[in-house]
Amino acid sequence: xxxxxxxxxxxxxxxxxxxxxxHVGLGLAPGQELVMTAPLDAVxxxxxxxxxxxxxxxxxxxxxxxxxxxxxxxxxxxxxAAFDKAAAxxxxxxxxxxxxxxxxxxxxxxxxxxxxxxxxxxxxxxxxAVSVAYRPxxxxxxxxxxxxxxxxxxxxxxxxxxFPDDAPDAALAKLWEAIFATTRIGAGDPVANWKAHxxxxxxxxxxxxxKRFSALHYTGSGTDFRLGLADDHIWMxxxxxxxxxxxxxxxxxxxxxxxxxxxxRAEGVVTASKPLSYQGTMIEGIxxxxxxxxxxxxxxxxxxxxxxxxxxxxxxxxxxxxxxLVPHSSPISxxxxxxxxxxxxxxxxxxxxxxxxxxxxxxxxxxxxxxELAAKGANTSLIHVDWMIGSGEIDIDGVTAxxxxxxxxxxxxxx
Length: 415
Ligand code: ZN
Ligand code: ZN
Prior knowledge:
This protein is of the alpha+beta class. Helix content is 34%, strand content 25%. The protein folds into 2 domains: 5-182, CATH 3.40.1830.10; 212-234 and 256-414, no CATH class. It is globular and about 55 Å long. One zinc ion (ZN) binds at residues 256, 258, 322, 324, 346, 351, 386.
């Protein structure tokens, strides 16, 4: 018999979260090595995950902790020239670990506002340096060559940003509850719940793959936007079998079905439906106009400078690398909470992402050269930044190659 949700302690729910992270999210194989990254404040979850990893037969768990205060000290005291530097040796090492068979787990939970008072030019230089250094290792992840997953831990700084009117302890407890509820922890058997949810997402993706739409048309609430899909695109949702043969669900939670748009085929105006928290800065009221797949005009009511620096990262940063459909009734959207964290907020609404495409969303994408992928419409960039464009106001039609239209979503729900 399973305990009712309200009878589980936070400790037990933490244990369940670690269990699904290892067994469902990561699909860790016996004997496999694990590279984990975590904020310092996520130590309790990181330890539980390490415990479940070893119990599942992990050969070695290596956890790299990041400390917000140390990051801030850099912005306060480091010389200006330092902001073009990244720990290349570390990312090379991670790439070597992935190549030798390690799995990758990231715990997210850093303060979404950490860098909001820092110089946007320094933030953008530091991010760029990390993107360049991490690129070879990240490639193995975007190509799904290894099993990987991201889960969240509540942290005091994140909780304070989300619930500024609550006392620190109450805010932290609220954030944990929100994470457990949206990550399907606490009600019944979490492993079975996740497997059923995964099957549903797979079914939705299979339906879209059968339809073979060549474009999507979004209308409503400041948006009139037509987005072409890449040639030979594949809709994906839930889990995927990585190149190393292991089945993983890369994001926990996940509510999206997604594919690769055509980098040269986006036309019209899109208004973001939620604020975007990007590397410690909030960007609000985003409104963007596309022509020939490229952003030709971008504005924001807050954080416009950061937005403009972001899309100037490289040529591909002005183009789209992902399109995802999420019903407005998703548990995250229904929680009514804005998490200020992409892992959650991108699963609250339909979204698009600027930058790098997932090549696994193109038929035989892992076997194609960069030129062949580009010819099919897959975008390349140092960045991949999701932003929310769906809401209860948006209608989406699927458009076939012959121009026939079919309603896909009305008022944010699947038809
Ligand atoms: Zn997405
Ligand atoms: Zn994305």
